[in-house]
């Protein structure tokens, strides 16, 4: 497949193992919003571990753009036979296709599987290379007879180029804490909150302490195989409680331990010397950002979830002088705990003209509703009027 300008060549790989990690990660390092989840080692581990592969409905179609032997652009793309593990919901679109006797699946997706973390998706050295990726996605969707193509949680450069090419924009909201880069204590953070919010957090932490629970926080290579085993047991229990199966296999986390240890921080809750819960954070040391990912517990302890997933990570980020903590997708309850609304974005191309028009109308209405929602959230700031979120 060739795409303008003529000097650029588009390549499609069904196995990310065929790609060169050094070249891919060099592209990522030059992107506007790099994250560890777009490293090729992370994407490869998802496939090699059987977590995101053809058997689970994620058929790899990684795109790369070349000028001779120089890699100019790349993105992780998948043919999807379902919409699980994406966190940008299009189930209603699929149902509408079905009601009209049309197939919504397969669809083409550019995303990091199971990872709703905003960041660069169309890795490109030049605007021409980014445009080549966009053109290539459309061509690939048509070739594979996909109903549509989607780029989820991209950066501003991705979104601008996609919208300029006629893709439909969609807005959502997450809740992030942002710091000023100066170390401070969790007590200082609490002091910046409104009284009722501060008292609620203090009460919740007190209940955890009164239950006899303490935390340790191994990081990187200090996270032992036994710690990973216990965490995975907790992770499985969380899914079991929701009557579902985990997306990620134990082998995936073994590969993370072996290949990307510097990007992980684990909080392990213990009582009487025995672990009872664990939460896992991904780290981006270069940008001093932390990302809440997974959690689980072997027994029900009041308020332990909030402490393990929000208060302990926030205290760690504050003490380290880090700049950002992202608590994951959805959840306005996070706002009372100091995580403020932040817009995220996606872009969508649909092959069927009438459905494209219908989705465009829907997204326009949804976008206005989302803006109204954010405006309403802004009226419920958890911080004192003299404070900011950047404690």
TrEMBL record:
<dbReference type="InterPro" id="IPR007434">
    <property type="entry name" value="FemAB-like"/>
</dbReference>
<protein>
    <submittedName>
        <fullName>GNAT family N-acetyltransferase</fullName>
    </submittedName>
</protein>
<dbReference type="InterPro" id="IPR016181">
    <property type="entry name" value="Acyl_CoA_acyltransferase"/>
</dbReference>
<dbReference type="Pfam" id="PF04339">
    <property type="entry name" value="FemAB_like"/>
</dbReference>
